[in-house]
Design a protein that fits this description.
alpha+beta; 60s Ribosomal Protein L30, Chain: A; 2 domains; seven-stranded mixed β-sheet; 8 helices; Hydrogenase expression/formation protein HypE; PurM-like_N_sf
Length: 334
């Protein structure tokens, strides 16, 4: 193959077949995908969770991952937030003519590694090559399907007054990493994306505590925006404890310099868990037993005060309302 992606690789002819067989099937191949049918035959039962997403992150490589692994993590996590076991994925690549072939192979290889770690199978895919300037390097679209294992499934409209609000770890890592890499900033300490598949931890959690009311991953818009969405859907209020919010010192320092608020920065390997207050300690025990949840903590409580509002209880005891993110704090974050 050429050392760069050529328009011919998207033609559907011999070049396309070489790209599929020598690169995509090399890293993503499995019994179903290798058949190269127009559609996949899937064996599923019961209730299904399905999610689709598109990834346009800039830069496509960053500390802690790249667009390939991120596409898997983001889709796997979205399905798992429904209390579902992610099983199948599709992926579609839109590639700019001229992308170095070794860059494409790194991305596809990391996607293959990510699906194997998550225990998910890519069953269908598509590749398009477009002229220079039609896209920026590479965009990836994915769809995930999973089998829901709890009834009722966690949902953004199920939060209740008295519920505990837990977070699985530190916030703002991904957002600051993307910004720093994009702008070439040096924070004097390594800042790395938290991008990861959370499904194994989430499935253990809902199997042991089936009364989990809400699971959400605070990606674009960050923690504050996600909590606003939950309080609006559930018609409850939320009190957040500022002193309990887990933020790495290097992230806090970077945000301070740049005038950013970690509450509104994207996360790609963390989740919010809202469940009855009496189950909070058990949930934290389960989360902290997993490396991806070792920094889990309780950060707030759902209340019947001011439905639809999120209030930050400051270290001095005051209250500050946290609204949804206004405008685009950082575009192309995922």
């Amino acid at each position: 193959m050429s050392d760069k992606v050529l328009l011919d690789y998207g033609s559907g002819g011999r070049a396309s077949q070489r790209l599929i067989s020598e690169l995509f099937l090399k890293h993503l191949g499995n019994e179903e995908l290798n058949r190269l049918n127009d559609a996949a035959e899937l064996a599923v039962s019961g209730r299904i969770a399905m999610s689709t997403d598109s990834f346009t992150v800039d830069p496509i490589f960053f500390p802690g991952g790249n667009i390939g692994s991120l596409a898997v993590h983001g889709t796997v996590n979205d399905v798992a937030m429904m209390g579902a076991v992610p099983r199948f994925m599709t992926c579609a690549y839109i590639i700019e003519e001229g992308l170095p072939m070794d860059h494409l192979e790194i991305i596809v290889a990391s996607m293959g590694e990510a699906v194997r770690e998550a225990g998910v199978v890519i069953v269908s895919g598509d590749t398009k090559v477009v002229p220079r300037g039609a896209v920026d390097k590479i965009f990836i679209n994915t769809t995930g399907i999973g089998e829901i294992i709890v009834d009722p499934a966690p949902s953004g409209d199920r939060a209740r007054p008295g519920d505990a609000v837990l977070i699985s770890g530190t916030i703002g890592d991904h957002g600051l990493t993307i910004l720093g890499t994009r702008e070439g900033l040096d924070f004097q300490a390594r800042v790395e994306s938290d991008s990861a598949s959370l499904n194994h931890l989430l499935i253990r959690l809902v199997r042991e505590l089936p009364e989990v009311h809400v699971l959400r991953d605070p990606t674009r818009g960050g923690l504050a925006t996600t909590l606003n969405e939950i309080t609006h859907s559930s018609r409850v209020g939320c009190h957040l404890d500022e002193g309990s919010l887990p933020v790495r010192p290097e992230v806090a320092g970077g945000c301070s310099i740049l005038g950013l608020d970690p509450l509104y920065l994207a996360n790609e390997g963390k989740f919010l868990c809202v469940l009855p207050g009496e189950d909070a300690e058990k949930a934290l025990e389960i989360m902290r037993a997993d490396p991806l949840g070792r920094d889990a903590c309780r950060i707030g409580t759902m209340t019947d005060e001011n439905p639809g509002k999120v209030a930050l209880i400051t270290r001095l005891g005051g209250k500050r309302l946290l609204g949804m993110l206004e405008g685009e704090q950082l575009p192309r974050i995922c």
